[in-house]
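Renewal narrative, Specific Aim 1. Our central claim is that a sequence can be written position by position from structural information alone. The example that follows is taken directly from our test logs and has not been curated for this report. It begins with the structure tokens describing the chain, in the order in which they were read.
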């Protein structure tokens, strides 16, 4: 995401870029000086400085901008955003620490799912303003480790069901899960010599099925 701005000096050109990008923290912007200002002679032949400004990590910036603005408007009290990226696919994990967590999680995590969806919509729209595309958004939102703990429970359930499948030879179905949860369960059994997994049904009722591998 790049823009070019002019100013009588390099600093003024940078400030104009920050203003257009609606950013106050200069550390998250990378500047490239295209042309330095020239004063000319007696005011003639002078040229403005020209700089190119680029947000270093626009996805992280817009995600933080949206969530910070929304949570402040909701007046839920103090909160912290812990943002991490992992893997070659740059998976973005955002953890919200807040006392009134139940309001952000909602029943069965539905409010949290909606909040994650709205964050992605906001990021896409901000990129559209600059005629750019963010690519695939591997962004996941959590509140006080709700999803982390839920996933640990699902993995434990899957392991118990897998043992039953091995003992009885009968397939077992898990309850409906999100796409990310299903993916993690599938990955957990990817190299299992006795168990294979597959998904069935349509969202939001799509579920994982565990069965034995044919020898």
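The sequence written for that structure reads:
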């Amino acid at each position: 995401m790049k823009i070019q701005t002019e100013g009588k000096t390099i600093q003024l050109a940078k400030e104009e870029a920050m203003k257009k990008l609606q950013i106050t923290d200069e550390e998250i912007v990378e500047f490239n000086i295209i042309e330095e200002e020239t004063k000319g002679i007696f005011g003639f032949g002078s040229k403005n400085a020209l700089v190119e400004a680029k947000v270093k990590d626009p996805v992280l910036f817009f995600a933080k901008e949206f969530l910070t603005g929304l949570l402040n408007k909701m007046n839920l009290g103090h909160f912290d955003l812990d943002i991490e990226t992992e893997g070659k696919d740059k998976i973005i994990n955002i953890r919200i620490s807040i006392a009134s967590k139940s309001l952000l999680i909602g029943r069965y995590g539905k409010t949290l799912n909606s909040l994650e969806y709205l964050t992605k919509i906001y990021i896409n729209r901000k990129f559209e303003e600059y005629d750019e595309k963010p690519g695939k958004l591997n962004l996941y939102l959590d509140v006080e480790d709700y999803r982390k703990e839920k996933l640990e429970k699902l993995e434990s359930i899957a392991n118990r069901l897998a043992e039953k499948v091995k003992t009885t030879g009968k397939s077992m179905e898990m309850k409906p899960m999100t796409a990310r949860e299903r993916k993690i369960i599938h990955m957990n059994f990817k190299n299992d010599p006795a168990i294979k997994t597959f998904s069935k049904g349509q969202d939001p009722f799509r579920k994982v099925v565990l069965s034995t591998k044919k020898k």
